[in-house]
Structure formats: structure tokens, C-alpha cells
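User:
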Amino acid sequence: MATIAEAPAKLGSVRAVRRRVVIAGILVGWLVLFAVLRGHQTLTLAAADLTDLHRWFNDVNDSIGADRNSNPLFLYFFNEIRLVIDNLVTFIQSLISQPSAGRPVPTIGWLGVVAIAGYVSWAFGNWRVALLAMAGFTFFGLQGLWQESMDTLALTLSAVFVALLIGIPLGVWAGVSDRVNRILTPFLDFMQTMPTFVYLAPLTLFFLIGPASATIATLVYAAPPAIRITAHAIRSVPETTVEAADSLGSTRRQKLTKVLLPMSKRTVVMGVNQTIMAALAMVTIAALIDAPGLGKTVVQALQSLDVGTAFNAGLAIVVMAIVLDRVTTAASLRAEAARRSGSRFAAWRKQLLVAGGVVAAVVVYLSHTYVWAAEFPGQGSTGSAIASAADSVTTWAQDNLSGFTNAIRDLITNGLLNPFQSLLTDSPWWLVGAVLLAVGAVLGGWRAGVTAGVCVGLLVGTGVWSDAMTTLASTVVATVLVMLFGVVVGVWMGRSPMADRLIRPSLDAAQVMPPFVYLVPFLALFGATRFTAIVAAVVYAAPVTMKIIADGIRAVPETTVEAATAAGSNTWQIITKVQLPMSRGALTLATNQGLIYVLSMVVVGGLVGAGALGYDVVAGFSQGELYGKGLAAGLAIVLLGVMFDRITQAAARRTTVPSRR
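Assistant: Predicted structure:
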């Protein structure tokens, strides 16, 4: 019986070894052909050159611009959507950020906004997050970034409001209907695979550049978490509870409002949390299409290599992300925390909330009426001090650490990145395509191979093949580094509960920060180079891979580890022969998520010298004649993301589901 039980595992191990041998053979064959065919049919394209597709995109953009106010599709659909969103954003901005007609200050000044933030945080969370919210919002003013912060908040709130208005009903529908869930899932997978950059170019085609387009891009990016998590929450309600409601004669409406929604409320609120975090990340990147706020300050500072200003604005984004995250997380846990606390104030909560509401209303009135409560006092001296300190640290680091940082940069760039990039960009395009197709088929099966082949064909059609290969090289190198760090730290966390308790909060906090923020410190250390984007991508993607690997290691049965220990295995043998092999599914999933995160960050790195597709997209926004090329680059990013996602997901399924052949 033991032999029969062990047979599937041994068979899976043999197949894994065979796959590795085949992959090695493919790579060796690639290197041999590369040596013979180097420099032929590489499809290189100069930065200012355009293909027929790029010119066609430019013509489409020009024709849409000419017909925008006469074409019925724009007059009665796209323009109306843009008008509604624009009015919503303008309304919220006039409340908290920018003066409305006839007023030199916003309708609600800084003191009123701080009071509202504290009261809402207290009402939905607790007094601790209320203090955090009030301190965080006051800090924006001390930084001299009050209006920029409120512009970012206005865009975020507008996008989240519309995203939840659409996402929660769709999520509920997908939760109660298997058919709707099957229809929505592929679209949600596709939308969450696309890097944030990609949403911007096509939306500007239909909604122009500005706050409205930024908000629409943000809500499109932020809606999938709301839909997916709401559907999951509804489907997670115990079947016995639903059956009990049916047996009592509940209608579908009663079952939804009295059973499904109340029992899934906590998870739905966590979905709201993820929607807010996604929206904030996207709003900052949307500065590339003229969205006001902190993102624009960071972008302008990065483009001028002003590390101090970028750090100050980036710090404000981090503070806003932490505040919004803590408030929504506390809201999801409030009911349970209140039951456990047994505080004597719990019985007086309603009365205290009423009194707090009155105080907040009075403060809002003061901020509406008096200039001292409307305009934040001071000149942002704290922000100037922070920027000056950041510049001083940057200067010190460049003077004293340049030897070390340059050595690391040169080692990775010359020893790993440049050779691999040369292999991709100097090989004939059809050879690289054949390798990608073969690797996809070996790792993920014939469907993944077909997907890789289709993506390769479309990448050739975009006309930015060479730039796509440069981005691919940076993505693969960064992912390798991510997995190295992920395995080391993830195994440590998975084997040591104390390490997990110490490290996991930092990883959770790191996942809250928008991508832009990661570029700033590494710009100071390494300058505007490709390596800066790679290091930022590694730090951005490492937290999710570490957590997945740690969970995979922890899921290995304790009895298996004890049996290996009893057989005389040392710690290294237990890790390499037992825990890592039994966590192959988690490792492959971590690779999948790492690739997607890295790709997203590498293209954002186009702002700090990463070049390739990221630069093409940014140049397309700033130079009208390159719009078509930027749009094609965005399409190429999507194709890379889809190819990575499908191959790694298929590989994950093959490592976790034994073959029945």
C-alpha cells in the first residue's frame, strides 16, 4: 500500500525532472543558434521611428479628436460619462481642495476636513485610528502639501464611490449566480493582470487627458477587487445557513438582505479596503495624464531628479495610504473588537457619537466661515525640512556609498542584465518566439504554449519588439532576484513563528504603498538607470512572494517534517528535500505574482531611466507624434503580462494537480 501511495508523488517528481531537462535543452539550443544568428532579424526600431500601426493609431487619435463633438457615440455616451465624472470630481474638489465660485477658499477648510476624518474614523473604527487619521491629515498641511493631498483624496473618493457603486452589486450578482461568476471571472483576471500603466493610454483616446480620465482609469482599475471579494464573501456563507433560510420560506430578496449580506459584511468591508488601496495607487500614477495631486508632484520631481521634493510628496502618499488602510481595516474588525473589549464606554457609544458629530459639525462651520480655519497656517516648513534632509542624505549616500552601490549596480547590470538583454534583443525574433512558445508548452501545457505563441505574434505586430524584449529582460532578472529573496525570507518565516510575527507587519505595510513611492529612495542611491527600476521592482514585489512562500512552507504537514527529522535529516535537507518540494505550488504561485508585480513596476521605472516600453508609454503622453507608439507599447505590456500570467498559472496547476494519464 505504501508503494501505491508513493507512486503519484514519484511520478510527479520524474515529470518535473524531465521538464527541467527539456528546458535546459531548449536554452542550450537557443545559445547555439544565438552564436550563429546574432544580430539578424531583430526588428529594432529607433526611438523616433514609427511603424504603419503607430501612424494608424495617430490617425485614429486625430480623427477622434476632430469628431469628438459631432460623432453621436461621443456626444451621447463618452462625453456624457466624462461630464458626469468630471462634475463629481469637481464637486468634491470644491468641498475640500479648490475654491468654488465666489469663494477664495474651499467650502470646507483644513480644520473641518481633519474633524470629519477623525469623526468618520472613530464612527467606523475606533479612537486609535481616529487619532491616526487626524494626525495624518494635519501632517499633510505641515508638509506644505495640503491642496495636493486633498486633490489626491478627491480623485480617490470619486473613483472609489463609482467603483463600489458598480462593483458591489456586480459582486453580489456573481456571488448568487454561477453563470455570472463564470462570465465575469475571465474579465476580472485580465483586468488584474494588466499593469497600471496600460489603463491610461486607451482611456485618454476616449476621455481626453485630465482629472476625468484619471478617475475613470482609477475606477476601472479599482473595481475588480470589489467585485471579486464581494462575490467570494457571498459564496463563503455556510450552505447550511442558506438552506435554513430557504426552509423558513425566505424570498430571494429576504435571503440576500437578511442572511447573505449581513454574514458577509466583514469580508465586503475588506473588499472596500482593497478597492481604496488600488484606487490610491492608480491615482498617483494617473498624474501622467494630468491628474492633480501628490502624484503630479512626484512625477515632476522624478523627471527633474529632485529627490527631496519627491521624497516629501512620496511620504505624504504613504501616510495617506496608511491612514485609509487602518481606517477601513478597523471598520471591518469593529464589531468583533467591541464584543471582546467589554469597555464601559461601549454602552455610551451612540451618545458619544452624537456628541462627537455635533462637535465635528461646529468645527466644519468654523472652517467654512473663518479663514484661519480654512487655510492651513504656516508655509510648510516641515515639508521643506524633510525635503532638505532627504537631499542631504542623498548627497551623503552618493558621496560615501557610491563605491558600494555602483559595484552592486555594475555587478547585476554587467553580469546578468546586459548578457540576458543581449540574448533577447540580438536574437532573431522568430528564435525568441520559438523559445517562449516551447518554454510555455513545457511548463504550462499546450494551451499555455498556444497563448505564448499568440502573444509573440501580436508583440511582433505592435512594432516595439526590441523594447518589449528589453522590458522582458529587466522583468525576468528582477523576478529571479525577487524569488531568491522570497525563498530565503519566506522559508525563514514559514519555519519560525517568531520571525513571521516580526516580519509580516512590515510586509503588510509595504504592500500598502503605491508603486511610485518605491522609486524615490533608489533614485537617490543608484541614479536614473535601469537598475533603479529593477531594485524598486524587487522591493515592490518581494512582500507578496515572501508571504505566499511562508504560507506554503507552513502548510507542509508537521508529521512529514517530524518523519524527516527522525530519519536523521538536518535542517538544510529538511528544507531542500521536504519543505520546498512539497511547496512547489506555492513557489509557482509566488513566481506568478512576482512576475506581475515586477512587470508593473519595471514599466513605471520608465520615469527614472528604465527606458523600453515604460519610456514609450510616457513619451506617448508627452509627445503627440509618439502617441501611437505609446499606445502600441501599452498593448505590448498587456501581452507580456498575459503571457507571464497564463504560463505561470498553468505551471502552478500542473504542480498541484497530479496528472491522470
